[in-house]
Amino acid sequence: RMKFVVCHLLAPKQTELYAMKEGLELLNLSNVWFDLASLQHNVRPDKPPFPVTRQFIHCATKTVGADRLLFGTDVPSNLCRFRYQDMVNTIAKDSELTEDQKQLILYENARTVFWN
Fold this sequence. Notes:
With 116 residues, the protein is mainly α. The chain is 47% helix and 8% strand.
């Protein structure tokens, strides 16, 4: 019944989409979640609305499912680089994610992992 959160979506660099996907496949277990903290920084250069970051999120969603992803920011350090609203909008304004997927990533998964 132990739960694990793997931070930073395996901390991929911009050129490591395939390697990240392979890592996610290996860790795709019922008790493992992945947070998206610092993803914008790790896959730099990327600027709002963060199309490169979204590509990694879409790959992760297809590989492990939106029900395994947690919104994260690494605030306060990332506030030196990014606006908080832009980090939220990376998920909230992504037209390729369904409203249900957004709800899972931004809210529900954290409840499941930390308070359920």
